[in-house]
Write a structure and sequence with these properties.
membrane; transmembrane; 6-stranded mixed sheet; 11 helices; about 280 residues; Phosphate/phosphite/phosphonate ABC transporter substrate-binding protein; 11 strands
Length: about 280
């Protein structure tokens, strides 16, 4: 009886040891897999994306076909910049405006730019109701914009040099087309949006567009930028090609459209010069 009890205790101890070893091995594998992942960090100062959970899930599902990649979107510039500081084996997707502001400090190199409707450049415009007074005679009222406050204010001050010291009031909306609708229906005095969005709205609601007028136009800027840290040591070509080839499959097209794009294109010397000037 004593021998049986002793054997039972030894058997239980052996099973417990094996279980602990298996748990430890599983934890090691999880940690190793996590540390080996290459992250794609996304933040756009030009859009107010509110479906981050869906965006992350869709991109993670797509990227998992190609290797240990993870998509990490951000809603705030300061959090994004703090998180990616000194990171090397990763990829950034950010606005050209944002890239211009941080590429030197973060040692970034541009690889691709977004394409929409066959174009890689966009132009922001300021619109109002057709009966609104000229912008040169009246200070801007509430402005609807999908961009961050910092981005919107920065571009408006270049667009409206007369109001360089003006404190703009901004109503943040999800997309450019929402900014146009807000101004068109009286929820804001002005709309800050892309020319592309205004042209798109003409096809949806031509009557509303006829009641709006363009008050000012900004400079042409590149769409979203795909950038890599200069210290990136993984397979750069594989990483860039994976993103560049997204439009070649239905799954890739679906994901890239979530970013408001149709595809990606390499930058030429002129693009790089304008981007980093």
């Amino acid at each position: 009886m004593t021998d049986n009890s002793h054997q039972k205790r030894r058997f239980i101890a052996l099973i417990s040891t094996i279980a602990l070893l298996l748990i430890g091995l599983a934890l090691f594998c999880v940690i190793s897999a996590g540390s080996g992942r290459i992250k794609i960090y996304f933040y756009s100062s030009e859009t107010n994306i509110n479906n981050f959970k869906s965006l992350k899930m869709e991109f993670d599902r797509y990227l998992s076909k190609f290797g240990p990649y993870e998509f990490q979107p951000f809603s705030a510039r300061d959090v994004f910049e703090k998180q990616v500081k000194d990171k090397e084996n990763c990829l950034f997707i950010l606005s050209s405006w944002h890239y211009r502001h941080i590429h030197k400090e973060y040692s970034l190199t541009p690889a691709l730019t977004g394409v929409r409707n066959g174009k890689k450049y966009q132009r922001k415009i300021l619109l109002a109701d057709e009966k609104a007074p000229d912008i040169e005679t009246t200070k801007p009222g509430l402005i609807a914009s999908a961009g961050s406050l910092q981005y919107t204010t920065s571009v408006l001050k270049r667009m409206l040099k007369k109001y360089a010291e003006h404190a703009f009031r901004v109503l943040t909306v999800p997309k450019d087309i929402d900014a146009l609708l807000a101004a068109g229906h009286g929820m804001a005095k002005l709309a800050f949006a892309s020319r592309y969005a205004f042209d798109e709205l003409k096809g949806i609601n031509p009557r509303l567009c006829r009641k709006m007028k363009v008050l000012a136009e900004g400079e042409e800027t590149l769409l979203l930028i795909v950038a890599l840290p200069q210290g990136f040591t993984a397979n750069r070509k594989k990483m860039v090609d994976m993103i560049k080839n997204m439009p070649l499959t239905p799954d890739g097209k679906k994901r890239i459209r979530m970013l408001g794009l149709d595809g990606w294109q390499e930058l030429d010397a002129s693009d790089r010069s304008r981007l980093e000037s």
